[in-house]
Amino acid sequence: MKIGIMGGTFNPIHNAHLIIAQLAAEQYKLDRVxxxxxxxxxxxxxxxxxxxxxxxxxxxxxxxxxxxxxxxDYEVSRKEYSYxxxxxxxxxxxxxxxxxxxxxxxxxxxxxH
Length: 113
Prior knowledge:
- By secondary structure, this protein is α/β, with parallel strands linked by helices.
- The protein is built from four helices and four strands; from the N terminus they run βαβαβαβα.
- Helix content is about 35%, strand content about 20%.
- α1 links the parallel β1 and β2.
- The mean pLDDT is about 90.
């Protein structure tokens, strides 16, 4: 399967997240889009935000009516910092039969080096 991973703090999740994910799914013919709520993002230290489980629950509610969207709690379940590169490496090892695509919003894209 071709799986897009839409990662974010989703504080809160909003229509732009859903639109970006849907457009990516259509353009790249993705079978699924996993919305991965960041549990402990290193670039957001010092920011006050709701608990990761609360943000994840909001994400589940926001995507529930789209059949290709799924909520992924991999990073929410981790206590240590969540790094996208490590998550993708883990997923590549856990699911070698899948092809993964990284979907990122403009706010995060501007922070990548």
